[in-house]
Each structure stands twice: as structure tokens, then as C-alpha cells.
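Board notes, transcribed. Complex of a protein with AG3.
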Amino acid sequence: MLEPSEWFTEVVEDEGSAFSLRVTEKLHEEQTPYQLIQVYATAGFGNLLVIDGFVMLTSRENFLYHEMMAHPALFTHAGPRRVCIIGGGDCGTLREVLKHPGVESVVQIDIDEGVTRVAECYFPELTNANRDPRARLLFADGIRWVQESAPASLDLIIVDSTDPVGPAIGLFSGDFYRDCLQALAPEGILVQQSESPLYHMHILTDMHADMRRAGFDQTRTLFFPQTVYPSGWMSATMARRGGAPLHEFRIADVCSKPFETEYYNADIHQGALAQPEFFRRALTQVLGA
Ligand code: AG3
């Protein structure tokens, strides 16, 4: 028998599944005005960040998610200079974006300052680029910030949020996508974490449909493994109005990128663009041919 107190478990009731990590110590617990933040030390995955009972990241594998939230979109855009990250308080996505020398400014807007303070303490490898003069950290409502941002002032908007429950719910909506579109410059790209293709097809198809209705005429989902989120399979969805097709990217620049990654490279990017059959069928049904 497992001793339950030694394991952190995230249960997905609807799917009859769960994922557990053996924990050795609870390092932190804090109820912020927005959510419950917990940090555990684990036996095999380094530190574990949990928000409202959902696994956010571990020291060991967060490169998978953070690299795939940042680099494919950055290398799809012809020359991204002005980037904003909605959510992302742990700063893992920010760190990846700052690796791009062509990026001139990154504004990160997370509603909960508590996440960043906890990351500074327990995941310093994610926050150690924060003093980069190109980075600006705001703790505010990202939906309002995008609404109020100057038209055509951004090249890339990355939505690195929690699941579409709690504070993140408004980030999965047509109104938010419309505001993103007005904030994006021509050729600008929106990329958003879009959950598991195995467990959350409805979130994915709704997202594509809502993005199209908001005025983006191209949407494209990237698939990648994610070892600690429900089902182990994750996705991110890009949207753009006009511009080159979203399955084209600066492959030569990826091959000669002046920085290191753990997972991302040109083959991975190409592979992440491959569309599973069930996914293709579901999208055709929702969007038409
Ligand atoms: N953002 C995506 C979290 C999704 C996890 N869902 C879950 N465990 N049910 C993570 C933030 C990392 N920067």
C-alpha cells in the first residue's frame, strides 16, 4: 500500500486518472487573494509547484512546456521585437523569450505576484533572467492590460495560464481574443496553452472557433509531450490574421540559434506541427473544410 501522505496526487475525476509524485517535504503553502500556492520537494522531480491543487511545473521537466510555449511562435514570426506574456508568473516562459536577441521588450502580466515571489525562492533557475533590462514584470489583470494596450503595439502575445477554471477563465474567450487581435501588429501572433488533446478536445475546438470568430483567419495547434500534466500530452495553439502560413517557420534561424535549449529544435518544431487524425477530423467538423 502507498502511504498517501507521501504522495502528491492530481486526480482527473472525469477521466478516471491521476498522476502522483513522491514528495519528501512541503516547502511552502500560501493562500493569495487569487489562489492556493503550494511548493513541495519531490523524490525524483526536484521542486513541484502546485496551484489550486493542479500541477504547474517541476524543476526537472518544465523545459518541455516553457520551450514549446516560447520558441515555435517566436521562430514562426519573421522578426518578433515586442512580446507580452499573460500569466507566466513563474517566469519560465519569460526566460525562454529572453534568449532571443532580437526581442527588444517583454512585458509579463500575471495577476498574482505570489507566484513570482515563490518562483524566485524555489525555482531561481526560472527567474534569474528577470533582471534583463528588456523585461518588465507587472502584477495586474492581463485581460484589462491587453484591452488597454495600444493598437498594433505587439508582435507576440503568449498566454501561459492555469486551466480554464478560476482566475484564468476569461483568457479562454472570444472577447479576449478580439482584444489580442487589436493589440497585435500586422503579422502578429497569439499563442496560448490549449491543454491536452486527449482529455480536452472541447477546449481545443472551442479555442479554434473562438479565435476564428474573433478575426484570426489562421489557427494552428502544436503538440508536445508533457510528463506531469493530465494525460502526459499537451498542446499550444497559435493564431494570426494574414501573414505567412503558421506551419512555416524560420528553420535556418532555428538551426543556427545562438542559445541552448533542452528540447526544442527544428525537427521538434516540425514534429509538433503534425496533426493527429482525430484532431484533424474534429477541427474540420467545427471549422468546415
Ligand atoms: N500552465 C499550464 C498549466 C496546466 C496544468 N494543468 C493541470 N495540471 N491540470 C503552467 C504554468 C507554467 N508556466
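Residues 10, 54-57, 65, 88, 90, 92-93, 160, 162-163, 193, 229-230 surround AG3 (CB under 6 Å). The chain has a mean pLDDT of 96.
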